[in-house]
Amino acid sequence: MSINLSLLPADEKNKVELDKQASFLVWKLREAIAGPEEIIEQRDKIVDEQEKAWFDQSIEKYKRVMGVA
């Protein structure tokens, strides 16, 4: 079953985008391309508290998946 992401409500689209950003940032951290400060900078740009919580959950999820301490 395929899902057309463009049909999602705006808040769901934003969750997908935040999850992608989290994945990319943790990958950069694992590859020593960026440091933890880049994750902090990105998190500080998020205004909505629920979105910050979602971003934090995604960061932790990808750290576990990628084996980043």
From TrEMBL:
Record-given protein name: DUF3283 family protein
GO biological process: DNA replication
Molecular-function GO term, any one: DNA binding
Pfam families: DUF3283 (PF11686)
